[in-house]
Amino acid sequence: MAMGRRAAAGALLVALVVLGAPPAAGAELSGVFQEMVKSECHFINGTERVRFVKRFIYNRQQYVHFDSDVGHFVGDTPYGEEVARYWNSDPEWMEHRRDAVDRHCRHNYELSTPFLVERRVPPSVSISLVPPSSSQPGPGRLLCSVMDFYPAAIQVRWFQGEQELSEHVVATDVVPNGDWTYQLLVLLETPPQRGLSYSCQVEHVSLEQPLRRHWEMPPNTARSKMLMGIGGFVLGFVFLVLGLGFSLCRKPRDGSGMGTPVSPLRVTPHWVLGAHPGSG
Ligand SMILES: *[C@@H]1O[C@H](CO)[C@@H](O)[C@H](O)[C@H]1NC(C)=O
């Protein structure tokens, strides 16, 4: 009996117990009961300070857990207290639990060091202007997007010139992408002003020095549209004059106005003929 319970607890990672008829295509399940066992290793300072926590959960409720800092099972529900008493009374089983911090946590830490502890992915950083909305009219807001970095620890700061803007800055949590990278968005709440330069600075363990992206308000769009219009008009006028001049110069040759134009490609310059005296 004791052995059966032990084995079940030790081997079970995630178990789904489905009661009722086996699920035929489209059939309704009469009930789903879930037993979940989670083993956690907390590395507080490398392998120097390690904590092992094992949680036993039934239908989303944790009923008993083991914490290596405590050293024995603690019940989280009346049933869990009963289970804890039962497991705590077995010295051999408890020895095994207390060893997990070395056998499981420190062992895995050392195995995974090259690709986990030492994993470094530098962020890609960009600044964008979030367009104004009905709730936030005006020139828009500056957003610093810090994407796809690892590990999660990071510092992102906004500057105006050399002045750090620590107020009016809001950031998302560091969001896990689910592929061992993270992202973070940091918004400057005050609208950017024309003529001032802004920068977003990122410090991360993957970067040898802080990474800085700069942003300045582009020139007034109304003004640049007007300049583009004037430029287009001038260019059009130049072509008009050239075209007029060309047609006026050609016209009087045979009086008909329909004279066959001489293709410039067919004209053999004199110096070419001179170079091949026998060919004429
Ligand atoms: C982390 O552990 C190292 C030894 O590996 C020790 O020198 C250092 O002081 C510890 N750091 C902290 C913050 O406890």
TrEMBL record:
Main location: membrane
Domain of life: Eukaryota
Keywords: Adaptive immunity, Disulfide bond, Glycoprotein, Immunity, Membrane, MHC II, Signal, Transmembrane, Transmembrane helix
Gene Ontology cellular component annotations, sorted alphabetically: MHC class II protein complex
Membrane topology: Single-pass type I membrane protein
InterPro entries with a match to the protein in the record: Ig-like_dom, Ig-like_dom_sf, Ig-like_fold, Ig/MHC_CS, Ig_C1-set, MHC/Immunoglobulin, MHC_I/II-like_Ag-recog, MHC_II_a/b_N
GO process annotations (BP): adaptive immune response; antigen processing and presentation of peptide or polysaccharide antigen via MHC class II
All residue ranges annotated as the Ig-like domain in the record: 123-212
Gene3D superfamilies the UniProt entry points to: Class II Histocompatibility Antigen, M Beta Chain, Chain B, domain 1, Immunoglobulins
Localization per record: Membrane
Ranges that cross the membrane: 226-249
Keyword hit for Repressor: no
SUPFAM superfamilies per record: Immunoglobulin (SSF48726), MHC antigen-recognition domain (SSF54452)
Signal peptide location: 1-26
Protein name listed in UniProt: Ig-like domain-containing protein
Source organism per UniProt: Zonotrichia albicollis
